[in-house]
Structure formats: C-alpha cells, structure tokens
Amino acid sequence: MKSFERVVLAHIQSSIPDTLYPLQYTYWPNRSTTHAIAAALHLSLSHLEDKDTYIRMLFIYYSSTFNTVIPHKLTHKLFALGLHPTLCDWLLDFLTGRPQSVRIENRTSATITTNIGTPQGCVLSPILYTLFTHDCVTSHEDIIIIKFADDTAVIGRITDGDEVAYRTEGASLVTWCEDSNLTLNTEKSKVMIVDMRKERRTLQPLFI
C-alpha cells in the first residue's frame, strides 16, 4: 500500500504549485527547520530597523493535529486547489471507514472504525495536513505566519503601539482553527516580544 501511496504523493506534488504557500517549510523540497528559523529572524530583524516598532511572536501549539483532520473538508480544499475529482474521491475513501485496533504483545483490542484524521505513519499524511492548513494565512502586510508542519509562528510588526491588526489576526486564527476542527493548546502556546526601544513600556497580554 505504501508503494501506491508514493505514486499518489508524486501525483499530488506535481499538481500543486511550489508557490502555493512559500512560508510552509516542511514536506517541500529544499526546505528545512533552518530555513524557517532564518526566515523568522530575518523578518523580525528587518522590522526592528524601523522607528518606534517592536515584534510580537505567537508560537502556536496544536493538540493531536493529524488526528483531527476532517476528510471531507480536506478533499473540498484539495478540489479547490485543482486536484482531479477522482483523486479527491479516492482520498476521501482512503481516509474514511478505516478499521483500527491496538495490539500489545499477544493482546489485541476491539476494532473500531474511524472517519476522522490522517493516519500516523502514512506516506500521504504529512502533505495532506500541509494542504489542509494552506489557507491559514494573514490579511495584513505587517503580519506573517511561518509554518513547519503543525508548528506555527505568527510574527507581526507593531508600529506606534497599535496592536489592533495583530489582535484581529489572532482572533481570525482562533476562528480558522474552530472551522478546521483543530484544537489550540493554550497551555503550551507561547508569546515572545522583541522590543529594542529605549523606553520600556507595559504591553498588554494576548488572549486566544
């Protein structure tokens, strides 16, 4: 089955443009964690060159991302990206009605049927998750989202203390997660502020 999945993977990769989302740094050729970190540092440092600005970084942690992908929402997005309807139907069939059980030594649990998620260890799961989240983008030029698989960083330049756009993007991200059935782990998500201004000011926390 994995051999066939690799054939499907190659077909998907050939059907999706490399420019689909340039700030996703995993599961694409010639991209790595190093590139993601370098992009984040470059964007942050270039922003800090401007007068009276500082950087807000929100590092998002999701809970059980691969296990919560809704197959019919995924295939709808894939169809919108231009994948052939027959391939979308095959992927929907591949991801639904899957029998699962747990085996420990010589004991096996009862079998259940699942209709949600992309299987861990599956050849197709990484790229399917990446394409499922490709539409998680910002609408403000001073705010970007850098992704590496399910690791997500929202980086924004704040000018003159005006955080309205950044907080709006944060609220939009929460809404997108709810619509996509992805759960934000607020305990593990972190905020970092990079402020090189001489005058220290109290900044309001960000709630998600």
Automatic annotation (TrEMBL):
InterPro entries in alphabetical order: DNA/RNA_pol_sf, RT_dom
Record-annotated Reverse transcriptase domain positions: 1-208
Entries under SUPFAM superfamilies matching the protein: DNA/RNA polymerases
PROSITE patterns, per the entry: RT_POL (PS50878)
PANTHER family assigned to the protein according to its UniProt record, in alphabetical order: REVERSE TRANSCRIPTASE DOMAIN-CONTAINING PROTEIN
UniProt name for this protein: Reverse transcriptase domain-containing protein
